[in-house]
């Protein structure tokens, strides 16, 4: 019989009711979540930092919107590859070795981006960024859960939006108002990574090394049998909200500038920043609401936001676009948080990195594939406005699919 999911996201009597946590999880130190959370923020900030720069790069190197979305998609695909190959590694070799390696690669990637002289270097930097981020996400999320399962689950859901929003805003402000616009933001990030590396060297390990590290490198989307139901319930909404994030990351800046008639990179990045920050605030605000309720709320907000953006695009309304973005942020935060909380608190300590990696694979598929397709449509289809309209309709369809999937899985649990 399939194990039921209660409104608190815990397993029914058939599940594993108690699993001895690591020592660090039983007696969490004050601030123990801060370091892994800060690394998630800085890695996602690094991923968002190039967004306001795409217009600058395009003007300097004369590339089309397809190139912009390919650069965006290369990052997402690299994250996917790294999640598949490296996602479970920290469950075997420990969190610290994986995080140190990821910080080293992320630093190299940022140096490549800071010194980029063309599209090839930009693609190489984004590829390295994606490998580093994908290799680290499972370990970082698991490290937070090792310290405190409930707070760790909320922090897992809140920090990606915080990081992405911070990266887009910081980069936009530096590009607009500071010297060396294509270098300074990367230098700030490099300094941050070095400090975090020192912190990882000093942090205690939260899991015991286990054999099988080499076998863990074989690409696999493995979900423990007891978690398959929760993952099926969460997958459609996770895909949908990250497809929305992909829209704002790839086409959002150009759309905001076209609707507003502004050439400011700050205005271009404002939509992505608003989506990410509102999403993070929604994640925290809904932390004690039952996860299924949160997912239903997120789906509703996603549908409302997509409708609002459709209307704003038809009316060429800048205010309508940002109002829709605000609602979209609520939907993003609620959908992502509800999906994470439905699954990750149920994972045993030695399953956490692998389970989180599966969830992030779903998220980055949602973000990467539609955004690359949208870039092709901008050039060979209906242009920016037409593609934005089609993408909003696509998000509406995803929201309907997510609702049907959630209701279907809920009925199966009650049988």
Order of SSEs, N→C? HHHHHHHHHHHHHHHH
- What is the straight-line distance between the termini? 9 Å
Rounded to an integer in angstroms, the radius of gyration calculated over CA atoms is 20 Å
Number of helices: 16
User: What helical percentage do the residues reach?
Assistant: over 70%
CATH topology: Growth Hormone, Chain: A
Shape: globular
Mean pLDDT: 84
Largest sheet: none
Q: What's the CATH H-level homologous superfamily?
A: MFS general substrate transporter like domains
Unreliable runs: 1-27
InterPro entries: MFS (IPR011701), MFS_dom (IPR020846), MFS_trans_sf (IPR036259), MFS_Transporters (IPR050171), Sugar_transporter_CS (IPR005829)
Membrane topology: Multi-pass membrane protein
Subcellular location: Cell membrane
GO cellular component, one term: plasma membrane
Would you write up a description of this structure?
- Its main location: membrane.
- Keywords: Cell membrane, Membrane, Transmembrane, Transmembrane helix, Transport.
- Mean pLDDT is 84; it is low at 1-27.
- The chain is mainly α and 415 residues long.
- The protein starts with 22 loop residues before the first helix and ends with a helix.
- It has helices spanning 23-26, 34-48, 54-61, 65-86, 90-93, 95-114, 119-147, 149-177, 184-202, 228-250, 252-260, 265-285, 291-315, 318-343, 352-380, 383-414.
- The protein contains 16 helices and no strands.
- It has a single domain, classed as MFS general substrate transporter like domains (Growth Hormone, Chain: A, Up-down Bundle), CATH 1.20.1250.20.
- Helix 10 (228-250) runs parallel beside helix 13 and helix 10 packs antiparallel against helix 14.
